[in-house]
TrEMBL record:
Organism: Priestia veravalensis
Pfam families, A to Z: EmrE
Protein's name in the database: Multidrug resistance efflux transporter family protein
Entry keywords, A to Z: Membrane, Transmembrane, Transmembrane helix
InterPro entries tied to this protein: EmrE (IPR032713)
Transmembrane segments: 31-50, 70-90, 96-116, 136-152, 158-177, 198-218, 230-249, 261-282, 288-308
Presence of the UniProt keyword Iron in the record: no
Tree of life domain: Bacteria
Lineage: Bacteria, Bacillati, Bacillota, Bacilli, Bacillales
Keyword Endoplasmic reticulum (UniProt): no
Coiled-coil regions listed: none
Amino acid sequence: MKPIILGVCSAFFFAFTFVLNRMMEVEGGSWIWSASLRFFFMVPLLLIIVIARKKLSATFAEMKKAPMQWVMWSTIGFGLFYAPLCYASAYGPSWLIAGTWQITIISGSLLAPLFYETIQTSKGPIQVKGKIPFKSLAMALIILLGVAIMQIEHATTLSLVSVLLCTLPILVASFAYPLGNRKMMVVVSNRLDAYQRVLGMTIASLPFWIILAIYGLITAGPPSTSQVIQSGWVALFSGVIATVLFFAATNMVKGDMKKLGAVEATQSLEVLFALLGEMILLGMPLPTYVSCIGIVLVIVGMALNSYVSSRKGNKETKEEMKQATTL
């Protein structure tokens, strides 16, 4: 239950990303600065936390063991996740971006065969290749239906090109985030806590953000004062608080792909939080009843997916343990 609660809390703070990014877009700010400034601000914020916990030297020592893996998976997990999300914010409201983002639940489940699960047997723990949790995935398809309904409604007011520019970047991000996160969990094992891992991944992804910022300076000019301030809030709420909460939750269940999928499913609540935030901060009207149906399906799909993952996960794990002892 604790990992699920942490996941819900992280969804609340993650929602600030979608709302504030949309605010910056409406005010004329470039998505490039919305993306890169967040991670520039995250570095000093996380440094303060890790130094206060007296774990900075251990973090750097761990990064020195596999610098190329840190750079590669951090660039994928942070760079190819957040830059596309900011780009998509130019083509849709925050609740739509947050709702479409929930396909990461399906994307994360499809990545299961790329990893190994730890199973306890009478002979000790063994590593078993992960399997796609089809029963949980069936529930997640309800989320996909909700996303499709929202996007179809959105498509009635925009061109096909604009709809694709909104959805395709999010599709890339939906695979990049869980892939980078899970790969880094494998690299560091239990040697770093959530704060250290987020700091390490932020620092390791800086080359990507520096290159993107240089491109932004050339093509869009420097960011406005308002965008800098809002990016700072995104860095604090989403980059630090939400990311650490989410990583802490996934770290608790990293040996069980089904429970990991359930934790990732809590992020579906971002769409509800983003909708409320946009209505309060931007004065946006309530979406049409068709879009509301899509939002409800996304949230219901999240709840069912979490329930199936927790119920079926325990049963299937026991069966796998029984089979493992006969090998």
